[in-house]
Write a structure and sequence with these properties.
By secondary structure, this protein is of the alpha/beta class. The chain is 58% helix and 10% strand. It folds into 4 domains: 98 residues, DnaA, N-terminal domain (GMP Synthetase, Chain A, domain 3), CATH 3.30.300; 148 residues, P-loop containing nucleotide triphosphate hydrolases (Rossmann fold, 3-Layer(aba) Sandwich); 63 residues, Helicase, Ruva Protein, domain 3 (Orthogonal Bundle), CATH 1.10.8.60; 94 residues, DnaA protein, C-terminal DNA-binding domain (Chromosomal Replication Initiator Protein Dnaa, Chain: A), CATH 1.10.1750. It has 21 helices and 8 strands. The chain binds adenosine-5'-diphosphate and magnesium ion. Keywords: ATP-binding, Cytoplasm, DNA replication, DNA-binding, Lipid-binding, Nucleotide-binding.
Length: 453
């Protein structure tokens, strides 16, 4: 109890010192675990990524604040403890959907550390319609008959159409059905790439072989990132062959079909084509309505049918977007006590699309500056400070990616630099982002800030 009090004081002070986005992303989820001899405070963070980030960026700050609260503090030791969120009940989450929504950077809070599966993705809450029937049927078949008919199972389709939900659902279903006797591992392809790169660097290839081959079902999400990186692809191919040769099940998702994965090695592509391939496409109107109604009932909420109808008519291409709007509506209803009507919805939808249209270069500059906690003046100026280099490259990359600005414009906007500098920065980040998961996550978090209204 005392720990909790100490840490709450520290957090409330930190909340003032850092930006809102940073606080929620990095600090809110920390917890004081122990106070050891010599003034060592042990603090838990939910994953390695945040541990590294908090250590590098906030160590001094936090220690100073902690000393004000407890002057015996000399040192902080951060540890990773994936399940520090167990304390929050589902009920608390439902009360504040916008908060959970905006905190999606770390959905892995509840993730099972062995399988990497998030228990929230189940078959039960997966809605089936004409757009995903085949994929769902194949998924069910895989659960009943692991490693035989549908191997590998390859699911592809656009963003936000339920690929991750479905393939994680297979994993969770297998866990329940076989009571944990079948070893499942879910991996985001970038994590796999990272592991391989790390292993090569540290000459620990054997570790990785064991890690990935010691399982019965391997689920690889977003395989399109693997293509083009020879060592990783080679390793993936070996892992794949070994598992496949032992009749173990492989499940893969991708944003496009195997034949459209241009950089993928021919051998690997034909392997994929030898299994079961199913796509997920845009849901039709009836299905969108079903999805909205199910999500509402999961949250224990209702909104008028006319509002449901408008959402289903307007948001046609992305289920994640539908969820986002619902979360906002419920937030407004619960927190502000506003009844949801057609016009409230209209306002939210138009705000949302305006927010997307009205992204200005300055908004991006500000988001990057906020995120890295550097000054705008340094960021777009001539400063040669070391800590500005990466933020500035990311800024140029985002101006290009989000706003499709010309290189001369970007160069000029960011410190009156030459367009070749802009090209160099964009290309550097473009290349790096594929192999560096930390960078990729940072950029996604910044995008969250940019797209949030
Ligand atoms: P993808 O991996 O294809 O980008 P996700 O699986 O992450 O998409 O889905 C985006 C969001 O929409 C998730 O929160 C997911 O639970 C939800 N979702 C997608 N498809 C369905 C579906 N058929 N039924 C219920 N929820 C869905
Ligand atoms: Mg996905």
């Amino acid at each position: 109890m005392e720990f909790e009090k100490i840490w709450n004081s520290v957090l409330s002070e930190m909340e003032i010192q850092v930006s809102h986005a940073n606080f929620y992303t990095w600090l809110k989820s920390s917890k004081l675990l122990d106070k050891q001899e010599g003034g060592v405070f042990v603090v838990a963070l939910p994953n390695n990524f945040s541990k590294e980030w908090v250590e590098n960026k906030y160590y001094k700050n936090i220690l100073a604040v902690l000393r004000n609260v407890d002057d015996s503090a000399r040192k902080i030791e951060f540890v990773v403890q994936g399940n520090i969120f167990k304390g929050t009940t589902a009920g608390e989450k439902i009360k504040s959907p916008l908060e959970t929504f905006s905190q999606t950077p770390f959905p892995e809070f509840k993730i099972d550390p062995v399988t990497n599966l998030n228990p929230k993705y189940t078959f039960k809450n997966f809605i089936v319609g004409s757009s995903n029937e085949l994929a769902y049927a194949a998924a069910q078949a895989v659960v009943k008959d692991i490693g035989s008919k549908y191997n590998p199972l390859f699911i592809y389709g656009g963003v936000g159409l339920g690929k991750t939900h479905l393939i994680q659902g297979i994993g969770n279903e297998i866990n329940t059905f076989y009571k944990g006797k079948v070893r499942v591992k879910y991996v985001f392809s970038e994590k796999f790439i990272n592991d391989v790169v790390w292993a090569i660097k540290n000459r620990r290839m054997d570790d990785i072989k064991k890690k990935y081959r010691d399982i019965d079902v391997l689920i690889v999400d977003d395989i399109q990132f693997i293509g083009g990186k020879e060592k990783t692809e080679e390793e993936f191919f070996h892992t794949f062959n070994t598992l496949y040769g032992e009749n173990k099940q492989i499940i893969i998702s991708s944003d496009r079909p195997p034949q459209a994965l241009p950089t993928l090695h021919e051998r690997l592509r034909s392997r994929f084509e030898g299994g079961m391939i199913a796509d997920v496409v845009y849901p039709d109107y009836e299905m969108r309505v079903a999805i909205i109604k199910t999500k509402l009932s999961e949250m224990g909420q209702t909104i008028p049918n006319t509002v449901i109808d408008i959402i289903a008519q307007k948001l046609t291409k992305n289920i994640r977007e539908i969820e986002g709007i619902l979360n906002k509506l419920i937030f407004i209803k619960e927190k502000k006590g506003i009844e949801i009507t057609d016009s409230v919805l209209d306002e939210i939808i138009s705000k949302n699309s305006q927010a997307n249209k009205n992204i200005s270069p300055n908004k991006i500059v500000k988001a990057v500056a906020d995120f890295f906690e550097v000054s705008v003046i340094d960021l777009v100026g001539k400063s040669r400070k070391k800590e500005i280099v990466e933020p500035r490259q990311i800024l140029m990359y985002l101006l290009r990616e989000v706003l499709k600005m010309s290189y001369p414009f970007i160069g000029n906007k960011v410190g009156k630099r030459d367009h070749t500098t802009a090209i160099y920065s964009c290309e550097k980040i473009n290349k790096e982002i594929i192999k560096n998961i930390t960078l990729n996550q940072k950029i996604n978090l910044i995008k969250d800030i940019i797209y949030k209204d």
